[in-house]
Design brief:
By secondary structure, the protein is mostly helical. Helices cover 52% and strands 0% of the residues. Helix 1 packs across helix 3. The chain is globular, with a radius of gyration of 12 Å.
Length: 88
Amino acid sequence: MSEDIRNRIVEIIAEQAVIDPSDVSMDQSLEDLGIDSLGLVEAIFAIEESFDISVPFNANAPEESEFDISSVGAIVTAVAGLIAAQKG
């Protein structure tokens, strides 16, 4: 997985949490970082824009989403998978 993908996602999440990127670890959940549902949606939009991908995420039913948001690391892995699938 590309270090660039990880770093950019950490930057996006840190921005939403209003913390330094160095304070974000791969095993933290967005809830651990203080990101609420609105912050989650904004982070998803920022990820889509940053990587020119469409994230299969339903903000009204996040538990039914195909996109794993259980931790920062899970988000990085999911985004890397979407990018790889798009490149085909």
